Amino acid sequence: METIKIDTRLVELIQRCEIMVQLTTRGAGYWNIIKMIFQMPLILTSSVMCILNSFDEGNGKMKIPNVIVNGVSVLLISYQSNLKVAEKVELYKNLSNEFLQLAHQIEGLDHETIDRNMINNLIEKYDRLIVSCNFEDIPKKYKLEVIKNNPNKKMPLQLNGCSGLRPNSSNMNFDIVSEIV
Predict the structure, then answer these.
(1) For 3-29, what is each residue's pLDDT tens digit?
(2) Is the dihedral of CA 120, 125, 128, 129 positive or negative?
């Protein structure tokens, strides 16, 4: 009976790790797109500055365009910095790798040596990773997509419905039963 409970806990933990790999990979992809959206205008404004400065004949006519282009560049850099885009990309990439490594570590365990203490240590490691994940920075559509793609797997608490995330219920049939006592 004890080994069945241990095996069940391990299977559920692997499933949760796999779900988190999918979610954090999507989060990293999303924030990487945002990062690229900010970098393209910066590259463009730097190129424009270079071109404008090459036409400068020293008479000061390029001061206003330089100020405008510099202002746009500073504005874009400050938005990117305030959103902490690069940090979020790295966070989700690292979390994805760490959840994957944890899943592989669990899969590689010898069933003969598994005990309650070992499982508790793995769960604590999982909990530390979950705490470091900023779920609010991952768009709702990616969360719902992961939920929809994994209907029969154990979800992390942040995705299992308690958080207010619900897949589109139009495809589900619900029977409403009321009993008068």
Answers:
(1) 666 688 899 999 999 999 999 999 999
(2) negative
For residue 19, give both structure tokens.
């779900």
The model carries a pTM of: 0.79
Instruction: Return phi, psi of residue 36, to 5°.
Output: -65, -35
Contact 27, 137 (CB under 8 A): yes
pLDDT of residue 88: 96
For every residue of 53-112, DSSP letters joined together read HHT--SSSTTHHHHHHHHHHHHHHHHHHHHHTHHHHHHHHHHHHHHHHHHHHHHHT--TT
> Measured between alpha carbons, how far is 32 from 38 in angstroms, rounded to an integer?
10
Eight-state DSSP code of residue 138 = S
